[in-house]
Amino acid sequence: MITFVLMVNRQGQTRLSRYYQPVELSRRAALEADVVRCCLSRKKDQCSFVEYKDFKLIYRQYAALYIVVGVTDSENELSVYELVHNFVEVLDKYFSRVSELDIMFNLDRVHILLDEMIQNGHIVETNKSRVLAPLTALDKMADS
Amino acid sequence: MALKIVKGSIDRMFDKNLQDLVRGIRNHKEDEAKYISTCIDEIKQELKQDNIAVKANAVCKLTYLQMLGYDVSWAAFNIVEVMSSSKFTYKRIGYLAASQCFHESTDVIMLTTNQIRKDLSSPNQYDTGVALTGLSCFVTPDLARDLANDIMTLMSHTKPYIRKKAVLIMYKVFLKYPESLRPAFPRLKEKLEDPDPGVQSAAVNVICELARRNPKNYLSLAPLFFKLMTSSTNNWVLIKIIKLFGALTPLEPRLGKKLIEPLTNLIHRKIHIFSSHKMLCSQSHLIVSLSRIAVLISLSSGMPNHSASIQVMKYLGLLAMSKILKTHPKSVQSHKDLILQCLDDKDESIRLRALDLLYGMVSKKNLMEIVKKLMLHVDKAEGTTYRDELLTKIIDICSQSNYQYITNFEWYISILVELTRLEGTRHGHLIASQMLDVAIRVRAIRVFAVAQMATLLDNAHLLTGNMQRMGICEVLYAAAWICGEFSEHLENPMQTLEAMLRPKVATLPGHIQAVYVQNAAKLFATVLKNQEGNTDSTAAQETSQLMIDRLPLFVQSANLEVQERASCILQLVKYIQKLQQKDVEVAEEVCALFAGELNPVAPKAQKKVPVPEGLDLDAWINEPPSESESEDEQPKAIFAKEEPKHSRPRHTEVDEKELARRREARKQEQANNPFYIKASPSSQKAYQEAPGVEHIPVVQIDLSVPLKVPGLPMSDQYVKLEEERRQKERADKKKKEKKKRKEKRSGRGRKHDSGPESEEDITPAHMVDIVTEEMPENALPSDDDDKDPNDPHKVYDIQGNLQDGSQVVVSVIFENKCDSFLKSMEFNVLDSLNSKLQRPEGSGPHDGLTVPFQLPPGVSNEARFVFTVQSIVMPQKLKGTLTFIVKDSSTHEKLDFKLHFTCTSYLITTPCYSDAFAKLLESGDLKCSSVRLEGVIMPFHHLLARICFHHHFSVVERIDSCASMYSRSIQGHHVCLLVKTSGQTVSIDAKCDEPTLLGNVLDEIKQTFSQC
Question: What percent of chain B has pLDDT over 90?
């Protein structure tokens, strides 16, 4: 299963974090820093999987932003790898060319999208239009 | 009131919202912490206001701060307030904050139950949706119990959006409140066929996760999933389904066969799915997919530009291979070159995966080559972690299954020595223990090992050069011990002795110094012995003087053990010197100090020490003072004269029942005490001695490799030598075979495989006897030890957790005597209480076993069946039937048969040495029985041979017309026979610890002789 989803930038600042297994707040910062260090140190031509302690990190880089997903051993690496891209495509569609600032300023919306796609640490929805449906409905409601 | 609202909205205009906060943080890069603390103060003010919009805005900002690592648990109650807002825009902010900050121990969660229930039943689907999503993050057992029913009704909501969310949250509910699974399951199953694909995939998800915890209960759903697999086009759902099948196939082998086709189709279409399906049991499709993976990896490594996605494929391919390796090592081994290539990859993740694969791939043939390659990588590797990983892998690979793949230990020692030259490794200890292990257990290597260790000691300054390399100086521990213990093999003991007493040694860690001191003494003894052999007595005296000069350095050591040993030995040497000055020959006696060889002790030795006769571990050594005793014994009695009554043994007063009760209590206590060494589970007392030293078969050492290698060894040369040796051997073998063929012309035409050499063809360079590990006297013959040391993987181990000694393998020869083709044979036996045919997991107790072959006319073939037998003391007959189809008539035919399990068939020919045999008879545990056979007309040795052959005995000793024989049952009963003959009468006196078994065996022996 997926244990956490992180979005961090090249400076190691967290832009989004979502934990599917309880991790103490005090330990989160250390974990995030460690994870980021792991991913940032890798070159572009290296594969997207890193074994980290007792779980695996799957990451993808989009411009200056890294999306890092921690998974347990039983999770299929490739499905998560593709999910990350799917997630970015969804964001792209919603924000029309998503940028780091979009994510920072609309954190709650990004969370809604993420929650549509991952729940309990499992991938639950990958259809773009279905993922976006609740959020667009919500925006309409707020406008009216 | 109105004024208040107006005031509130005006305030709001000046409030920061989330965007402002983010912007603010970005603008205050230098004093971020200070800025945030002022923000938190503001938020606290905002939370105090009545306006829900202000509160929601504050909570929203808190969620952002929480992400940055600030503790916001103090606002938990405010979050609940925002959650309960009637306006959806605020409500979702509340739920989002809750899902990020709440966890099981957050106490305000209790307050939310009713609010959540209200939201769940809200007419607005997004209210319900946000409640469900939020709930999945912070559901507690209490919430799960209270809300299970509400969620269950939502599972059949009209809106697919709600249905999907409800199905998903049920999984979390099941985990927190398992009782809800039973009532909810039928509805969950329904959802697998929901018209909406989203709901369907949600149901698949939940069931897949549940099934992996307990696959048995979900077997009945297999057909449904099968249908889904062939119809679904969603890759993520497919992966889940295949994973589920991965959990189910071990329980239902037929499923595996059925899956081959759709899976191969899938794999051809979408290779990536493969990595998820683990261990589906059909071989053919595995091979197919394996070859595809191999193509993939080779493709990706052939590409000039290592783009990330290709690397991803490579990684996944290797991962999949490691999974296949567990079940089908052979098929992976053929891709060895590819995997070795991956070791050169730039990417550490890929290299680590490839390393893992290597472990399962080595064989005698390629070990040297692979290790050579790894050594190259060790030299090149940057970063200590990867290098350390390589080092441990090399040692793991070489030492696996008791050094099974090592044919040349000299090579191994030189590899170890080369590894010591690694900079900054942490694994010095590991290398040291390998050196010790090899030197102790492989006798033939000692000469070589000692030479190498002496060089190591000589060059110790290289190892201890800087502090960074401290980890590696553990090796010196091993080196010093080996040189001391096997000092008789040393080329130049004097030089080594000097090396060990250098002042520099004092900088080593204490425990190593202690070994140095002790082994210097051993060396000293050897040197003395050599020097006294010569006529020149001054040399010996000089040696003593050297010791006396150097040892005081160690006497001053801060380490207690070093100090103690050094001062002991110093005194000893001083005494020796005194004697030497009087021209007394001392070497002999000094050597006696260290006489005797230390043998390796088997790890299970302690467990195998039998309880000596007459020792009842349950009996009290001293009776504990009972309550009553303390009452009638007055304190003054201590000084008074002991009354005769007190000297009476007390335990006679305790009745049997009381004793039994106490014993029970004690057993209980022992069972609960983790430090108590429990008795061996077998109640059998064993007397057969583990083979003593004189019985160990020491194989003649045939050294075809020159032993002396000047200086430090280079492992490479061994690879070359080994190659040459093998070639020579192969040539020899061919010659021999030619000869053989000539001689055996008349025999059946034998096919010799002169192609690539097989594993068996490779003989070890020097037949090294890996010295048997020492077992205590009277140890139990080990039958529960490692089952098959040759197994590269545990997967081959016999399945099931049967008790040892309760399995009987029956091999049945089927011969087709008619002239039609027979097929679909099924072998079935009616199980009795005592013996059962072992059937594959998942089949019923009356199912037959398919015979794995067909029979053309006139052909015979053998099949083996395994039975479990509880008690072996009685012979038994099992009724069985064989059903088969005659091809021409295609009718089912039946053949009844009986299987006779004689008691003899439970006996295993076990050699027994006469001393152990005598001990066994003396023990008095065995029941006696005897039988007389009349009118036996055959020579005595024929008679013995007959008993040996038919009844699996072995002759222990034979004197004239009298012989003692021994055998052991599969459950460890000892059977001893004393056979005497006089004229035509043969009398057999027998002893066994199981009288019924003995009686039956004797009956069977009698029958054998009555037939002739």
Answer: 1
Domain of residue A104 covers 2-139
B854: DSSP letter = -
Local structure of residue B860 (DSSP, 8 states): E
* Closest listed residue to residue B558, CA positions, set B505, B506, B500: B506
In a domain, A67, yes or no: yes
Residue B734: predicted pLDDT: 56
Task: Give the CA angle between residues B159, B161, B164 to the nearest 5°.
Answer: 110
Q: How many whole angstroms separate alpha carbon A87 and alpha carbon A83?
A: 6
Which helix (H) or strand (E) segment is B891 a member of?
strand B891-901
Which helix (DSSP H) or strand (DSSP E) does residue B649 occupy? none
Distance in angstroms (rounded) separating the CA atoms of residues A2 and A16: 15
Size of chain A, expressed as the number of residues it contains: 144
Residue pair B759/B363 in contact (Cβ under 8 Å)? The answer is yes
Residue A17, chain B, CB below 8 Å: the answer is yes
pLDDT in tens, B309-341: 667 777 777 777 777 777 666 767 777 777 777
- List CB contacts (< 8 A) between B350 and chain A: 47
Angle between helices B125-138 and A128-143 (to 10 degrees): 120
B620-626 long-range Cβ contacts below 8 angstroms, 24+ apart: B620/B651, B623/B650, B623/B651
A144 is a domain residue: no
Q: B564-570 contacts: CB < 8 A, separation 24 or more?
A: B565/B514, B565/B517, B565/B518, B566/B517, B569/B517, B569/B518, B569/B520, B569/B521
Q: What's the total number of domains in chain A?
A: 1
CATH number where A77 lies: 3.30.450.60
Q: Which residue has the higher pLDDT, B698 or B526?
A: B526
The tokens describing B722, both together, are 């080994």
* Cα B449 from Cα A30, distance rounded (Å): 47
Closest partner CB to B67 (pick from A16, A133, A141): A16
Burial label for A63, CB within 10 Å (0-12, 13-18, 19+), is: exposed
Q: Is the complex ipTM higher than 0.85?
A: no
The type of residue at B573 is V
**By the 8 A CB rule, do B605 and B775 touch?**
yes
Does residue B106 sit at the A interface (CB-CB below 8 Å)?
no
Bridge partners for B687 per DSSP: none
- The DSSP output letter for B774 is B
Nearest to B349 among A32, A47, A107 (CB): A47
Residue A81 near residue A66 (C-beta atoms within 8 A): no
Instruction: Give the residue from B213, B212, B152, B216 showing the smallest Cα distance to B184.
Output: B152
**B window 541-580, beta carbon within 8 A of A:** none
Residue at A98 is within a domain: yes
CB-CB contact of B786 with B855 (8 Å): no
Q: Does residue B867 contact residue B836 with C-beta atoms inside 8 Å? A: yes
Query: Is residue A68 a part of any domain in this protein?
Result: yes
Q: In the structure, what pLDDT confidence band is assigned to residue B768 with cuts at 50, 70 and 90?
A: very low
**Amino acid in position B420:** T
Give the tokens for residue A62. 């989009």
pLDDT value at residue A69: 93
Outline where DSSP puts E strands in chain A.
Answer: 2-9, 14-19, 49-52, 55-62, 65-71, 118-119, 122-123
Biggest distance spanned by C-alpha atoms of chain B: 131
pTM for the full predicted model: 0.54
B22 φ, ψ to 5°? -60, -45
- Residue contact A141–B243, C-beta within 8 A: no
- Which residues, numbered 93 to 132 in chain A, qualify as contacts with chain B under a Cβ-Cβ cut-off of 8 Å? 104-105, 107-108, 111-112, 115, 119-120, 122-127, 130
